[in-house]
């Protein structure tokens, strides 16, 4: 148990030092569906475009590369007891489902169930964009506003070995579900 705790602490230490971590900046979803925004890398280059689709029965966001090619779709799942959103790849194959797992007065808890991978847990203050995404207790991504002075912008740091598209799409889904009226 001690060795496992030490391994987890060392893996999480990479985020503090930026070792192998890729940082993206995203806009807080203060815009309506139908508006678009960019996800930029730490050099300020546009990496993905989030294209909100208006006038649909379901909340839908297409994530595209800078050339306009779709890499993922995030879409609400109607007729569900719990609010959830599915993440699909460019060919329409489901990659993951994001849903709020449990209501807690202290922290939000969310689950990202991957079709071909481990279940990821999301813990922290989702409303304030201060949370982590973990796999088996190891941090694979961190979402935070602490590095940004620009209003309505937050960062997504993704560690080595994590699927960047799935993590960024999950951040879009969580933001959409946590701020439904924005």
TrEMBL record:
Q: Which residues form a coiled coil?
A: none
**InterPro entries in the record, alphabetically?**
LOR, LOR_sf, Tubby-like_C
Q: Which domain of life is it from?
A: Bacteria
By sequence similarity, the record places it as follows: Belongs to the LOR family.
Protein name per UniProt:
LURP-one-related family protein
Annotated organism of origin: Kitasatospora indigofera
């Amino acid at each position: 148990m001690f060795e496992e705790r030490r391994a987890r602490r060392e893996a999480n230490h990479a985020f503090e030092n930026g070792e192998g971590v890729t940082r993206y900046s995203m806009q807080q979803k203060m815009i309506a569906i139908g508006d678009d925004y960019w996800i930029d890398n730490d050099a300020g280059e546009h990496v993905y475009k989030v294209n909100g689709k208006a006038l649909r029965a379901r909340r839908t966001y297409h994530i595209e590369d800078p050339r306009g090619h779709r890499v993922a779709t995030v879409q609400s799942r109607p007729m569900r007891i719990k609010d959830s959103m599915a993440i699909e790849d460019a060919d329409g194959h489901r990659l993951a489902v994001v849903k709020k797992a449990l209501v807690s007065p202290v922290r939000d808890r969310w689950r990202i169930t991957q079709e071909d991978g481990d279940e990821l847990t999301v813990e922290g203050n989702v409303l304030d964009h201060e949370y982590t995404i973990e796999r088996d207790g190891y941090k694979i991504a961190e979402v935070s506003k602490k590095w940004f002075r620009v209003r309505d912008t937050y960062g997504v740091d993704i560690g080595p070995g994590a699927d960047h598209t799935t993590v960024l799409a999950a951040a879009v889904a969580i933001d959409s579900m946590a701020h439904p009226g924005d």
